[in-house]
Specification:
- The chain starts with a strand and ends with a helix.
- The chain has 149 residues and is α+β, with helices and mostly antiparallel strands.
- The strands form three sheets. Strands 6-3-7 form a three-stranded antiparallel sheet. A two-stranded antiparallel sheet has the order 1-2.
- Helix 3 crosses helix 6.
- It has six helices and seven strands, in the order βααβααββββαβα.
Length: 149
Amino acid sequence: MTQNWDITTVANAINVSLIQLQNWIKRGYIPISDAPGHGVKRTLTLNEAIKISSLKEIASLGVQPKLIAHHLKSLYSFSNEPAYLVIRRFPLLGVDGTEVYSDSFEEVHKVSEIVRESELIERLKLLPGALVINLDEIEESIKESLGGK
């Protein structure tokens, strides 16, 4: 049976305001499976808490949540080594046809993948400007905050 926590407990564990969390859910930035009836408190799974914490982590770097929400739909981990969410940037073409990397996250096409720790360094050599989030670290932090459950 999957462990669920009420939305207030998860907001406190992740250190995000309840209003902010509710806004992210309402705007569809976090795919949530539970749609409670009127007057029933929403509950969240560990997987949903990991997605919320990942969104908060990336947003703290100055990236707008609406630009990263689609990267959080299919997060997963590996049983034998840490997993990293790597959001890649593809270059824009300059007027002279050369590749240019913009500092604006909004101006580039983005693709993400989950990468094993053993493959991360080699992958990053090929991906200038990639944004990297350690999913296992986020999961452990959330578990600890929720009482090790």
